[in-house]
Request: fold
Amino acid sequence: MKKHIVIIGSGVAGLAAAVRLGAAGFKVTVVEANNYVGGKLTAQQMGNYRFDMGPSVFTLPDLIEDLTKVSKQDVKFEYLSLDKICNYFYEDGTRLTAYTDKEKFATEVATKLGETKESVYEQLKFSATAYELTAELFMEQSLHKLSNFLNLKTAKAILQIGKLKMGKTMNDVNRARFKNQKTVQLFNRFATYNGSNPYQAPAIINIIAHLEHNIGAFAPKGGMHDITMHLYNLSLKLGVEYKLNTRVQHIKTVNDTAVAVITSNGEIAADIIVSDADIKHVYTKLLDKKYYPTKILEQEKSLSALIFYWGIKKEFKELGLHNILFSANGEAEFKCVFGEKKPYHDPTTYINITSKVTPTDAPEGCENWFVMVNVPHNTSGEPVTYVKEMRKHIVAKINRLLKTDIEQYIEIEDVQDPYLIEQRTSSSGGSLYGNSSNNKYAAFLRHANHSSRIRNMYFCGGSVHPGGGIPLGLLSAKIVSEMIAEKN
Ligand SMILES: Cc1cc2nc3c(=O)[nH]c(=O)nc-3n(C[C@H](O)[C@H](O)[C@H](O)COP(=O)(O)OP(=O)(O)OC[C@H]3O[C@@H](n4cnc5c(N)ncnc54)[C@H](O)[C@@H]3O)c2cc1C
Reply:
């Protein structure tokens, strides 16, 4: 008889695990607290505007292609290659476009910021080297399986790790390379792609720039939510069953073996349980207290976000799919958000407009703005109180840098903050990416993809190894599925 696997949560990693385990021949049931699938990777329609609610940056599409291949289903996932990665705006009026074409990007940085083109190439080479040396070792396999370290390839990679300037922070390396603080700010911002602080995160976090600048920047044709729907549809074709509106309240163990989930709609027996829910939620709310791994769960959490979803009845020609309006003082901003754990009054403001590539996402002559600033994760457990004040700062910033009066063009509005993110996804404090990577041991301090104390209990998703964000979430699902297939 087929073994029955229960997956808790239908975030992107839960969906990817459902596809892989369904394709491997297991009977799979996904139990999801919400009445929709996707977790953070969801969307909403407001009037004639469509909004992706969470992730907006799409890299490594091969990871999605791989899932299509594994599923053996004839369903296409369509996406575009972008020729512009991002438009950058600075307080002093400097504007710069990061092109995917390296020569064009280096020329732009040289012309607008006074750097040498060689320094840009060196930076991108450093990111590429970091990726080549570490991706397979730290991201594509379990760090908690000794045999993964006992091979020649790994030994070679470990010997070269000196090249990665492990004793230095991301900011140290970027400041040493570039003359202009604006260039440093541009490359430092990649730390926020996994919710970290470039003044604390190790230099290796520069690896993130490699994805967009060396491999490529992409956009799903129908918006980010296409990723969720594609994986969901593949899993349905493989016979995966979904129980929506069903919250897991307890994971039942017998003799340190996971045997069932107790849900808001009754008990479901399982041979194997895979949790895609935030690891802190699992240990504090779902498992017996005796299993609580204090050291791992008390690591610093990643950033959260405050997001406004605005239907804008105007077109801004100077904006593209991704746009960043930098804070006048990046260092003060990170100090405030990570040190004082408060939102900053002059926040780096990200504007994502999917209607630039998918015109049906907004009415003609209008745009769907996703306006996001980084804020600390919420430790109070209570609703945050700064939304109104931060909205004023954000509106002022947009008005200054885009020389507009944005308020008059906002015809529809919604907002999401760390409290709401936690309510909707059970992510600890509304953190976007699980733990931060603010120290060089962070990779080793994430929870493993299996439990060392509970048999048949596995974990995937942004709060466990290898980390947060869609690509790493997809890799966690791959690691978990391979571990399960190997043992069963
Ligand atoms: C605003 C925002 C912007 C982001 N930007 C990007 C980006 O540009 N690029 C990128 O790659 N990543 C980005 N991220 C991060 C990315 O969204 C996450 O890393 C990823 O989606 C997490 O997926 P996951 O599989 O861990 O599950 P989650 O999305 O966290 O979903 C977990 C699911 O489990 C369910 N669940 C939890 N507990 C239970 C329970 N007890 N019973 C039943 N169900 C339960 C939840 O309801 C939820 O559906 C962003 C996130 C946010 C919020």
The chain has a mean pLDDT of 94. The radius of gyration is 22 Å.
